[in-house]
Every structure is written in structure tokens, then in C-alpha cells.
UniProtKB/TrEMBL annotation:
Top-rank taxon, per record: Bacteria
Protein name in UniProt: Membrane carboxypeptidase (Penicillin-binding protein)
Polar residues bias spans: 394-405, 412-422
UniProt GO MF annotations: penicillin binding; peptidoglycan glycosyltransferase activity; serine-type D-Ala-D-Ala carboxypeptidase activity
Glycosyl transferase family domain: residues covered: 85-270
Signal peptide: none
Catalytic reactions of this protein: Preferential cleavage: (Ac)2-L-Lys-D-Ala-|-D-Ala. Also transpeptidation of peptidyl-alanyl moieties that are N-acyl substituents of D-alanine; [GlcNAc-(1->4)-Mur2Ac(oyl-L-Ala-gamma-D-Glu-L-Lys-D-Ala-D-Ala)](n)-di-trans,octa-cis-undecaprenyl diphosphate + beta-D-GlcNAc-(1->4)-Mur2Ac(oyl-L-Ala-gamma-D-Glu-L-Lys-D-Ala-D-Ala)-di-trans,octa-cis-undecaprenyl diphosphate = [GlcNAc-(1->4)-Mur2Ac(oyl-L-Ala-gamma-D-Glu-L-Lys-D-Ala-D-Ala)](n+1)-di-trans,octa-cis-undecaprenyl diphosphate + di-trans,octa-cis-undecaprenyl diphosphate + H(+)
Biological process according to GO: cell wall organization; peptidoglycan biosynthetic process; proteolysis; regulation of cell shape
Residue ranges annotated for the Penicillin-binding protein transpeptidase domain, each copy included: 374-691
Any single Gene Ontology cellular-component annotation: outer membrane-bounded periplasmic space
Amino acid sequence: MSDSSKPVAQTWFGPITAVQRRAMFALVPVAVAFGLVVGLAFLPVTSGIGGLAKVGSEAVLDLPDELTLPPAPESSTLYAADGETVIATFGDQYRVQLEYDQIPESVIEALVATEDSNFFEHNGVDPEGVMRALVTNIADGGTSEGASTITMQYVRQVLSYTATTPDEVAAASEVTIDRKVKEMGYALALEEEMPKEDILTNYLNTVYFGNGAYGIGAAAQVYYGKVPADLTVAESAMLVGLIQSPSVYDPINGSSEAATARRDHVVNRMVDVGYLTSDEGTTAKEEALNLNPQDANNTSGGAIDSDYGFFVDYFEKWWEQQEDFGETEEIRKARLYRGGYEITSTLNTELQDASQEAVEDQLETGSEYALGSVVVEPGTGAIEVMAVNREYSNDVSDNGPNTANDEYKGSYPNTTNPLLSGNSDVPGYQAGSSFKMFTMLAALEEGLPLDTTIYSPYQYTSEYVVGDGAASCGNYWCPKNASASEVGDYNMWTGFGESVNTYFVQLAERIGVEKAINVAERLGIKFRNPLDLSHVENYPETYGPFVLGVTQTTPLDMAAAYAALPADGVYCKPIPVHSAVTNSGGTIAFESECDQAISVEVARAAVDAARCPTGYGAAAGNCTWGTAEQVSAAVDGPVAGKTGTTDSNSTNWFVGFTPNAAAAAFVADPDSPQNFVGDGNLGKPANAVADILAAQWEINGEGDFTPPTELVH
């Protein structure tokens, strides 16, 4: 006999199927944990708490003071690394505090009918709802029903508001039996101390309705331009319907159809529980949405200075990815905008200002070409600088026409595109010879020493099949050196210093290019371009052009990757924050995720070779000449790095570092990546980094490079 054909038993909360019957047996261990709490929910309101205290559940019912007086959401402030200079504010805390008699009956009835129809009968926990949800969830193997009363939802809001650490934030909303039991206990205790009317008032004053509106008073204004007392039944139902998911049912920026369907569901519930007659419900559902959207009167800020805009934008996107601050990006952003955090970032304003000046000295804002740089601190991953010759602004009305299409408004001088950090729409720019570092590191890991000598012709026919093309010889990739005079025996010092293409292609053949790709991935290089990703995932052993930097990347990725070298091989994921103080005084310390990506000796050997391009000179070997000797001339201290130029000079790079800072800079046309940047722009990234690292060394001129003792000869 199938489960569906077996008799259906009856219980006090309705029929129970065979599947649910089996599920109830699974409830036995769980019942021991929460049975006392649920059992007390059956007791009269006057006896619930006293009885529970006697059975030893004091820990469950240790009611926080904040539950009776939740702190009002506050805007957050972002400071520079000095902890004093304000660089941004974040706030969307528009709310209108209401008293109970200012909230219309239609809103109260819509909320109770939809969220907790037994609200006025239970004492914080609805036992029938709890049992029904437990049976259903265990039978389904999921959490399709939550059984949260309005009181429990209010408890969850307050616990979330008053959390002082990321762990507490996560604990306030995690889907576990322990969290649910604790929530029930708090709800029972709260209803002993707070009248139902106050619970409803506090809940409706704090819950988020979307579009920057917190509380029903703000929601009535934002969606309808009204005070709550003037809301119709249909409007009250629409607003209450938003509580479940403000983004899904958003009628202003989302789907009016979804909002209408949700409103009608709320109206139907009001009819079901007797708050509306059938005719009144029909009339309400026939009413149009009649929206009158208003801007939220909030304190939403952002960067104080346009020069800090790209860093602030990166910080905000980073915050939205931190899962400890909420289950969704929307929740995490809301926490930033109303959590009242005092956040100390990693931005060094003195170095940022010097870097912005260095960038502007090379290529002024308004150029169709973008010149930008990022500075990362070795050993911590702290992002100290994000500077580019662009204004961070949504106002593109003054942007000039792109050279390829006179009707297209390019990303200059105003843009909010993440030119320095990248995303799915901005994969970055071809890195050119700056990627040779990853092949050298892989070769050193394989035991090849710095003096590995290879005869390198002007043009070399490799083993990599690429088909027809400008760099193809009989279907094989055959790259050339930058100059016909670059012919002869080279080692890692001289080959890296002069950027000899044919040397590094042969080096990759000896070790396997897939090993160079692996090193790049360990050092945080992300492959955002679908074509690059396809090569890396599917054909790494044949992806020869990777060696010479055909892959697109960003200054942030490159600065962080090179920062691992002076840190003796420790790679730290870039991070924009040092710490945050919560509105209750707790402190959250942030640390980057760091790991020993390459060995100490491999890192030190690579640093020694990387001294050659800058003209600083190697400690363990001999350099010939460098492709960016102006860098050591500008920096009054130890410096290393690598230039990078792509085919047709569409992009030019320089990545350099001192013992305590790594800077990456590029120049390209972000709107047309294949647009030739011109000979006059080729040295500008190196010039900019030279000035940036010179300023950095003046600010913090400490440390030195440790010469390698292995992998030399």
C-alpha cells in the first residue's frame, strides 16, 4: 500500500499523513530540547514565565535589556587608516517614529492576518504553528515553514540590531533549532514585560519596507506620499506584503505584478480571519496600486571626496560580500547603512593624495585613456591607495565621445566603473610582460636557479599550437622579442631585466605553462574574461601566450600578487578595512586571509631578479639594463618590479614594490581595449609608480630585501 492510500489520522491541529507520522518519530530527540518552551506556551499568560524558571531554563530566558528598547538605526562612518579622517558616510535610516494610536487599524489587521493570526491569543509562541511547522519541515527535509510569531520576529530584529560581532550577526538569523528555541524563550519573556500594543508598535517602527524606508511611517511616505492614517485598506495590505521580501515585491523598482499578487494575498488573509468581508476584500483587490513614489529623506552619503570614490565603492562591494553580516547582499548593505558602525579603513590619505597627483602628472583627467594605480601592503593585504585619472560620478552628461563611435559616451572623465578592481563587466586589461613573473616563480619552484641560461633568438617557434595569426609560424606560436638586437644567452636576471620574450617562452616549455598558471592563481589572479577562463580551465598545458600576458587582469590583483614577494611568499587577499566599532561599543577586528603561497627562498630569488628592471641592481647576480630604470632613480630605497606591454601597445603596465608596499599601474582605453595607447603613454605607468613608491618611501622608509641563499647557481 502506498503512503497516499493509507488512512489519514486526525490530530488537534488537523490531519496527519503517513509521511508526517514518520516525521513525528524523528521529533523525539528534538522535543527534549524545546518541549518545555513550547509546553509553556500553552499555559495562561499569567503563569508562563514563572513555571519555566522553575524547570531550569533561566539561560534561555535571560532577557536582554535591549529587547525592550532597541537602538534606533544609525548611519555608518568610514574613516581613513588614521582613524580620524572621514572619507565616507553611509545611511538610509529614513523612519518616522509612531505611537500605537497613529498606526491605522488596517495596517495592524493586515500584519496580524498575514504574519501571525493568533497574535492576540498566544503569549509569544504559537504552539499549534510550531508543531505544524516542525512536522512539515522534518517531513520535507527542509525549512519551508518557520512558525515565527510577530513577537519572535521582533526579537530577531532586536538581536540583529544589537549584535556586536559578525558571529552574533550570523547567530541572530541562522536557521537552527537552537536559535529557534532561544527566540521562543525570549518571546515568552518579552510578552511578560511588554504589552501586545507596544510589541506591534516597535515592530512596525523598525521593520524594513524597502527603498530606504524603515517602519510603516516612512513606508507610507515613500510609496504613497501619505501619513499612515490616510492609507486605504489596499495600500495597507500592499505595504504589509513588502515585509516578507522588500526586493521581490518592490512595486517601484521591481515588479508591480508581484506586488499586486502579494497585496491580494494579504487581503485574502484579512478576509479569512474575519477582518474584512468578502465584498470588502473584492473591493480592495480591485483598487489600483496608486503609487506616488517619494525619495526617502535619508542620510545616504558616500565618498566625501571624488578621489576616494573608487576606494569607497570597492569597500561597499566588499562589505556586501561578507556573509557574516547577513544572508543576502541586501541585508548586508542595510546593516552598513543603518548599523551605526565607526569603520577604520586601510586607505592612507597621504599616500592616496600623492598617488592621485602622480597619476594626474602623467595623464590628466579628461583623457580618453585611463591611468590608474593601486597600492597594497605586503603581509597584510591592506589596500592603501586607489587612484585613477577619473572622477567617481554617475553624471556622464559631460563625457566626451569615444574615438570609435562619436555617439557613444565614454567612461571619461566621469565613471563609476571599477576600473581598478574589476567585476564581471570590467574583466581588466591585458597584463603584458608583467605576467612573466609567474613563469619565473614556477621555474624557481621546479628547482631551476636564477642563472639558468638559455639561448634566446629574436623570434622563436614554440611547441604551442595557435592556428593562423600574426604570431603564428606553421600553426605554432612564434613570438618575437621587442628588439631585433635582443639575441643571445640570457638568464633570469638579464632575461627579466630586459624582458626577453623568447627566453620566458622557452622557460615555460621546460616546466609546463600550467605550472605558471597555478602560481598566478595561488597569488590571487582571477580570470574574469570568459575566453581567458576557458583556456585556463580546459587547455592550461597549451596556453603558451599566457606567459607573455595576453590574459586580462586588474591593478588590484597585480598589486596583491606582487606584494607576496617582499612578504617572503605570503599572499594576503586584499582587504579595505582594519576594524569597526559597533553602535553598542563592541570592536570588530578584520584581518586578511593570508597563506604561504610560495616558499621563502623562491620569493627571495624572484625579488632579486625583479631588482633588474628598475635599475636597482641584483644582490646575488648581475643585471644588464632594465626596462624601467627611472624607478630606482626616483625611489630613495630598495625597489623592484616589472614592466608590461601588450601587442600593438594597447595596454602598458608597471608593477613595482619596496619592502613595505606594492604598486601596480596601467594605461589603456577602457572603452576600447584594443585602442593603441601611443608611444607617448608607454612609460607613464612606470613613471607614476616611481613617484608613488618615492612618496611611500618618504612616509615609511624602512626595511630591505633579503638576498636569496638558494636557487642562485
